[in-house]
Design goal:
Helix content is 16%, strand content 34%. The protein has one domain. The protein is built from three helices and ten strands, in the order E-E-E-E-H-E-E-E-H-E-E-H-E. Strand 1 (2-6) and strand 2 form a beta hairpin. The protein is an alpha+beta fold.
Length: 149
């Protein structure tokens, strides 16, 4: 096991180096269980919604980034923090429909270095995040974010 600096958070996390059958090495990082400051990814709708709402976040999209019948880029808006005029609020149902159809995962941080609730989040390709999307009938899983070395 090796300590590794996380570029997204500037924090150190434990990691285990794994080698695939093709000889390529991968790192799976897990956040410190005590601090909860590492980044995690999930496709679980309930978990995403609870995380956002606990921080005052609401589902939104960026105006004029989609075509006809497409809402465009998804975001979580945090009203009261200099709300962006380019964002348009949408329902959670609309947001998750686009999230799923785009094959996205939600990358997020629970706590800042000072222990406060973090608002850091990013929507990433499930493929890039190494997140395995499951059929709609089964519940998506959560896993720690890790990067390829």
């Amino acid at each position: 096991m090796k300590k590794q600096s996380n570029r997204a958070t500037g924090r150190t996390s434990s990691s285990t180096k794994k080698t695939s059958a093709s000889g390529a090495s991968k790192r799976s990082a897990t956040p410190s269980k005590k601090s909860g400051r590492g980044a995690n990814t999930t496709t679980d709708h309930d978990q995403i919604r609870q995380w956002a709402e606990a921080r005052g976040g609401v589902p939104a999209c960026v105006k004029r980034t989609g075509g006809r019948g497409d809402m465009g880029l998804l975001r979580i808006e945090f009203p009261g923090r200099g709300s962006d005029a380019k964002l348009q609020r949408v329902s959670w149902d609309e947001w998750f429909e686009k999230f799923d159809s785009s094959g996205l995962s939600f990358l997020y941080q629970d706590r800042t270095a000072t222990g406060r609730n973090s608002r850091f989040n990013k929507l990433v390709s499930s493929e890039t995040a190494g997140q395995q999307r499951k059929p709609a009938a089964s519940k998506p899983r959560t896993r720690s974010a890790g990067g390829a070395e």
